[in-house]
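Example record

The entry below shows one chain as it appears in the dataset: sequence first, then structure tokens.
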Amino acid sequence: MKIDTVVGESLKKELKPIGDTMTADWLKLAGADGKAIIDAYHKK
């Protein structure tokens, strides 16, 4: 089995809104602690 680690830009564009929606939904449940986790992740 070969796993391709290169993701095309079109796939990234398609997945971005899905990830944004999932993150927003999760943040509604996770509250301030969840926001701190996401903020720390984005600082990387």
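Notes for this example: Residues 9-43 form the longest helix (35 residues). The chain has a mean pLDDT of 91.
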